[in-house]
Amino acid sequence: MSTSLVMIPTYDEAENVRPIVARTLAATDDSVHVLVVDDNSPDGTGDIADEIAASTDRVHVLHRTVKDGLGGAYLSGFAWGLEHGYDKLVEMDADGSHHPEYLPWMLELADSNDLVLGSRWIPGGEVENWPWFRELLSRGGNLYTRLALGIAVRDATGGFRVFTSRAFERIDLAGVASKGYCFQVDLCWRALEAGLRVVETPITFTEREFGVSKMSGNIVRESLTLVTKWGIDRRLRELRSVVKDHRRLPSVRTNAHAVADRTA
Question: Which residues form the Glycosyltransferase 2-like domain (predicted)?
Answer without folding.
Answer: 6-171
